Amino acid sequence: MRTARTRRFLMCPPAHYRITYSINPWMDPSKPVDPALALFQWEDLRERYRGLGHTVEVLDALPGLPDMVFAANGATVIDGRVLGARFANPERAAEAPAHLAWFRARGYAEIREPEHVNEGEGDFVVTSSWILAGQGFRSSPLGHDEAQEFFRRPVISLELTDPRFYHLDTALAVLDDTADEVMYYPGAFSPGSRAVLERLFPQALLATEEDAVAFGLNAVSDGANVLLPRAATGLLAPLRARGFTPVPLDMSELHKAGGSVKCCSLELRD
Ligand code: ARG
């Protein structure tokens, strides 16, 4: 039997979500999103969290920042310490101060405005022993060092090599954060990083390319329930075999910008 731990998430509604530019291979401004459907899917995710007993805090969306719905990129919070983001692309730069302001207004005492590029939980994935950190497309290796110093936890740098999986959280998800249990798509990583993952996580659930392109690794687990896009059908049986309860969700509109469940959810580890 798996045990869930109650979580707190910060989410930002897709009030201004559009595809107006392209900063990853999924984004095509000529293929518009359906704003009403995007909002419906986002609300469904929020209500699923609440239905499972989790808390969802809401950050107000700002006009002119169409990717702000991907709240996971705005910061990283561990032990109540907040490392702000610094975006690689100018299109998203103004999201970072909006997140910092939210944390300041809520009285978080340890807040760091980063010197180096890091896209929050897009590239920082927290397991029980380590912070796994993606580089290659967005976050800088210097940002990894900065996170290690700030969080006082070991940071393992991993190199992403496939532009479709430009953030670590598109290629790897934590299933149990008390036991270093993860799932990932090996094809997203350099040979050296793949070997590191095999060494650290010999029991990992390995995803197929098909489930990875369906954004099945952009999943959130509370230790028992795994919320993931419903298109990643190949992950359902292996998750059940491990004792997890998959919670499939339709995230098709968010997928158009290269995001899904995890990208919309910033975990507040207070
Ligand atoms: N369009 C956004 C970008 O390219 C998507 C971000 C997805 N977020 C994530 N945590 N992977 O920056």
TrEMBL record:
Tagged with keyword Amino-acid biosynthesis: no
Protein family: Belongs to the DDAH family.
NCBIfam families in the record: DiMArgaseDdahMtb
Protein name (Swiss-Prot/TrEMBL): N-Dimethylarginine dimethylaminohydrolase
GO molecular function: amino acid binding; dimethylargininase activity
Keywords: Hydrolase
Source organism per UniProt: Actinacidiphila guanduensis
Keyword Hydrolase assigned: yes
